[in-house]
Amino acid sequence: RKEVEQDPGPFNVPEGATVAFNCTYSNSASQSFFWYRQDCRKEPKLLMSVYSSGNEDGRFTAQLNRASQYISLLIRDSKLSDSATYLCVVNRNTGKLIFGQGTTLQVKP
Amino acid sequence: DVKVTQSSRYLVKRTGEKVFLECVQDMDHENMFWYRQDPGLGLRLIYFSYDVKMKEKGDIPEGYSVSREKKERFSLILESASTNQTSMYLCASSQTISGNTIYFGEGSWLTVV
Question: Which of B58, B90, B107 minimises the CB distance to A96?
Fold first, then answer.
């Protein structure tokens, strides 16, 4: 079993839709959590950190459930420019960031 | 802005060749990383370094070595390239171990023939 698991998708949604991705992690010692965005043939870039109380950045909302060991990302009012792969990332504070496989989002006009 | 620069973007090498991938960061970060990314497998950590001349194995160190002689530079070495090392290689850096943002270079696409 992979330490960080994501549904690879693709998720195909129309513009304006709300879409949610989940990510599960297996190591309860995990301390820090992030969502990264990766465009095709580009490097990953930080989208947002995920805090225990949940956090929002514009149209993006991240949630953490430590008891169930999952992280979620909600995107409201999807734009064409949101089309990308979204990577769930877990840090055990050992210097090793563990990446999920990524979830691909395609937003259609 | 943090800049992580990978000098070689696209390389084609022959089986058995020695390959050097160079990475330089300009933010005085303590930690540097080498990942490879393959379809269906995601990013996998090869090696990381938390200080000059220090290195730690990641999840897939076999067939690779690294060198960190200066704080800003972290090199990945393929001693004898093989076709299964064809991949995209990503260098990254971060300020601390405990959860600060990790910044990636643009990637080096290596094809071994």
Answer: B58
